[in-house]
Amino acid sequence: MSDQKVVLNRNEQLWLQIKEDLNKPQGDGIKVGLTSRLHDDQIEQLKQLYLHDKKDIFLSCGRKWGKTELMCYVLWKHALENPGSACYYVAPEGAHARELIWENNRLQNFLGKDSKKYVKGISNQKMVLSFNNGSYIRCIGSENYMVANGLTPSIAVYDEFKGFNPRWHVEFAPNRAAKAAPLIIIGTKPRAGNRNMDQYNEVLEYMRKNKDSYVADRTTFDNPINHLPAQKKIIDQEIAQLKERGEFDVVELEYYSRVVPGGKRAIFPMFRRERHVQTHTDIIDSIKRDISKLDWYCIADPGSTTCFATLFAAIHPYTRQLYILDNLYEKNQEMTSTRKIYPKMDDKMMEFYPKSSVHDDWTKVTDEAAAWFATEAMAQYGVYFMPTQKFLNKKEHGLSLIKDLLIHDLVVISDRCEDLITEMEKYAKDDKGNIPKKDDHLIDCFRYLLGAANYDMVEVLERKMQKNNDLRDRFRRYEQDEHIWKSQSEDWTENWGF
Hints:
Elements: H1 10-22, H2 28-31, H3 40-50, E1 56-61, H4 67-81, E2 86-91, H5 94-102, E3 119-123, E4 128-131, E5 136-141, H6 145-148, E6 155-159, H7 166-178, E7 183-187, H8 197-209, E8 213-218, H9 229-244, H10 248-256, H11 273-276, E9 277-278, H12 280-287, E10 295-301, E11 308-315, E12 322-330, H13 338-352, E13 362-366, H14 371-381, E14 386-387, H15 395-407, E15 411-414, H16 418-426, H17 441-452, H18 457-489
Parallel strand pairs: 1-7, 1-8, 2-5, 2-6, 6-7, 9-15, 10-13, 12-15, 13-14
Antiparallel strand pairs: 3-4, 4-5, 10-11, 11-12
Helix pairs in contact: 15-17
């Protein structure tokens, strides 16, 4: 069979050339043996966009992970492969965009000497990069939110979303959604007290729950280039300086993309997702043998103007181990009426303890400040919610008790409880050292739960200590018995005459 030459047309040749130019390893990537422009972890995250059809990507990254490289790659790739595309790079302010990606020519010369093949023109004043195929990349700041609703993006990248003007996303999102344009949000996580914390968490929460979205945390050390001796030395020095100043929370946030709750003003600095949060399946598997022995709780904090918060939990009556299984966190006021919210509560209770009686097996508690809910629950469903009697338990005592549970690993939280986890992570004292009176609805439920359970930390720790003492005593007795047995059995044949 004779060889046949495959002749590619002009568009096919251009496509292959784009692929080759986009994916050539460059700079430090060559030193670590990369075979592509991006390192393996960057490629892994972009698979969600290019292979798994995710429309929205939210990446919280440590320093030097390679976010700028990834953003430039995404924008250039979309612009070159989709003629006539309007691609947007959005920074907190126009000055940030100019400093981060424009003045250093990071965007304009992303492909190095190969950039000239594709670039038609550059407008330094407007920060617009135009391509021969009719596409363009425009850099803009979120302070220009007035023009956001007039833009029609084909793709958008948000850099350091934590610093955005809250009006930008509100104005920009509808036009983006109309064209189903992909959105990539990337940057470091906000510290406690950040003015844009609420919007950051709301968008993050939406993406976590949306099947068309992908959310991930990446660390500085997921980038192989940062393991090169020169880069590692610089990073180690930066971390050492921060630790010398006592800024351990900054190290965790900036390099490991882990939020130390509240930073130095944290109310729950001991809380860690990796330590206190487990998958819902694992928790259910661990308690299913004792399901009928556990004490079950449904704790409500009805808010008609803010949100209706509810916690579902179980406590082992002897060990007093606490399992928080789920939460409801309804902000839509149209959905916070008793007829809307109680059936959801009932469904949750039956899911966690299917053969239970809501009346007899569940302790149901509600904030007496919202007496309307308890009254309507009884009138409409015949279900009694007892008051919290929160006036008997000071808030500071309840928060201290939660801290003790976290320190002694006496509480396990399901990964379903993202709202509770978020509240605990960002719960911090204000500049005057006062405990905040907002964004704590589920934390209040946590306190009411401990009050309803008459949770006594002293009793629990004494019981735990007694258990440890019993185990030590049993082990000592075993050692003594073993010693006696050995001494009696060593010479059992000495008189047999062998």
